[in-house]
């Protein structure tokens, strides 16, 4: 493998879009404790942003509204784990992965059910592969992504998809349209392990997404099996869902294990107006108007 060659003034930018679980069906549980899931997933234009550039020594800096929420400890930071796992793989192949400065602009709330940390890790893999300009077999990159977390392979793809298993079995969806939506979060955490422990049934019917004339009809036939439990743990989820409905959303659901909910609107303008009204009503909560990516070969993050 050839050594990496980088210009000193090179800056690589990668977006880390929010991951939206349009549907999440819990269909079983493996012997190792991992839950089996069927998920209908898309990604938004809104998300975190990462910059990568050559440096004399490794450096990691954060900025943005939610940077402080990550705390001072970096031991479990997925961006740094992604950097090290990728560097190890490149070194094993005889390549070079020089020091890098990484700047994370954290605009997504953490532990919010929209894959913020996983999206950051996936963007780190994409960005460093571009910066270091060292080819690796795709199967190696996929293995690194799964090692980082069950959501990271989906975030690596960052396109509309269906995921099975623990999230690693991915099938792209080419005909999904863009949805205008408002992301809403009361900025209170809900424990994902506690949500899964609260499930009374872990063998629910699987996801069945067939071609239909209207995607909203498709969504209406699906579920998020985690939402009833999460609502019991955090009453604000029901409150914020009602607020989205009151603003005229045509469809409202919680994403992942919460607490972020999304409301789908007819147009991006309508979503922006709703987000403005909701911020005025609850300025201490998180509301963001955005649009999801479309399916097909042009879907992606750059």
Show the helix and strand layout.
Elements lengths: L11 E18 L5 E20 L4 E5 L14 H15 L7 E6 L10 H17 L5 H11 L3 H6 L3 E4 L4 E4 L7 E6 L6 H6 L17 H6 L6 H7 L2 H11 L4 E4 L6 E5 L2 H14 L4 E6 L11
Parallel strand pairs: 3-4
Antiparallel strand pairs: 1-2, 2-4, 2-5, 5-6, 7-9, 7-10, 8-9
Family: Belongs to the GHMP kinase family. IspE subfamily.
Protein name: 4-diphosphocytidyl-2-C-methyl-D-erythritol kinase
Pathway: Isoprenoid biosynthesis; isopentenyl diphosphate biosynthesis via DXP pathway; isopentenyl diphosphate from 1-deoxy-D-xylulose 5-phosphate: step 3/6
Q: Runs with pLDDT <50, length 5+? A: none
Radius of gyration: 19 Å
Q: At the first level of CATH, what is the class of the largest domain? A: Alpha Beta
**Shape summary:** globular
Q: Strand fraction band?
A: 25-35%
Proper CATH architecture of the largest domain: 2-Layer Sandwich
> Topology as H/E string?
EEEHEHHHEEEHHHHEEHE
Domain count = 2
Mean pLDDT: 93
Work out the helix count.
9
* Total strands: 10
The end-to-end span amounts to 27 Å
Structural class: alpha+beta
Query: Could you describe the largest sheet, including whether it forms a barrel?
Result: 6 strands, mixed
CATH topology of the largest domain: Ribosomal Protein S5, domain 2
Q: Helix share of residues? A: 25-40%
Pfam families: GHMP_kinases_C, GHMP_kinases_N
Keywords: ATP-binding, Isoprene biosynthesis, Kinase, Nucleotide-binding, Transferase
EC number: 2.7.1.148
Protein name: 4-diphosphocytidyl-2-C-methyl-D-erythritol kinase
